[in-house]
Target: NitT/TauT family transport system substrate-binding protein
Amino acid sequence: MRARLAFPLTALLALTGCTVAGQAADAGAEQVVVGYQSKTINTVTAGTLLRAQGFLEKRLGDGYQVVWQDYDTGAPITAQMMAGKIDIGSMGDYPLLINGARGQQSEQTRTKMIAVTGFNQRGALNTVVVANDSKVRSLSELKGKVVSTSVGSAAHGLFVQALRKEGLKDTDVKVENQQPPIGASALQSGNVDALSQFVAWPGLLVHRGEATVLYDGGALGVPTLHGTVVREAYADEKPDVVKAFLAAQQDATEFLWKNPVQAAEIVAKETGLPAEVVYLYNGANGIATFDLPIKPDLRAALDQDVPFLRSIGVLQDIDLDAFVDDSLVQAGGTPGAVLSGTDAICGKPVGDKALAGELWLDGESGTQATADPTCLLKAVKAATTAGKKIRAAYVPDAGTGTRWFADKSTWVRDGDRFLPFVTEAAALAYNTAHPGSRVLAYEKAVNEA
Model:
């Protein structure tokens, strides 16, 4: 029998609906309605963190009231925007494209993507996981099985494209179209064989010890991003409000750059997600990078997404040139929260993002940066020996660079080096290609470091 979820199904189901804050307008106040996804934590600079810190309200000043509408996916935000009931929203790349395509069906419903929130150049914001007792060890072994995903989402796109890369057809696997929390429950109950979802669901399930990574989205090598979208009619009518929103989004972004641990704690408090999971994605050297401009490589990624969305029947046509417009975005500071300094254990400089790790000790507000995975293991060993409790330890995958939990990674020892991998399959592949190396569990890697 598979382990039960750490929180009841009713709590999960409650996450699928819309919650509305500040619905009652103050007398004489003009409402600005913002749709966001609190638990899609790579939109926090246009949603959860932005709301929690009050940056938008400060930018707008008196005379405005912000109504925040929280959804689990981008689809209902798009539906509300088409109905003229949401002015500004944030969602992932595939929902953004669907939003733009639907909006272009009528002059009155047209929308524009005006900024990026969080992105990953290799696609690591999406992940395929299986239950811990699953016998499935590769994507090819999912042939004839059932997989839960949100059809039309980037997580769905990751799964189908990864299947095709493995030489399988879309029809080789039965896809159940489910909201993330429903899919998570279905995975634990054994009703589906795998779950392909976007941040933060895979990290949450793995952190809780309820799932194992089958496929690291970073292995696909296709950029994925989240962004901000506005109704074009609203932007034309209220350009100052849109400019204020983007300025507030920049405020939230810079706050996250400068205070990544504090930002993770704030988002955790607002969403109920563990801070360790939020920080995995949104922290220093996190899986997500936050910056507003729609850079050429991200614009190109949207171009590449269109044929796939057409192939699965969720998109007919879209004029990207008319939809994508970040002309109102102002240049900010240096993008990203990055690990730096000197490794306290190894005495080496911390700087190479492909190697740098991080240790978060219980009871400490800050974190400890490490130069490479071997130094991370030494830091864990030193902290444990000193009787300190490890809150979280993070390392980048030796192949894809995807940042992951050190204790949930599969490790390989190759001479004096210790190499972490998000998936067991990747570790075994390295082991096969490097005679003399050996695969070992995290605890053994710590002891041998």
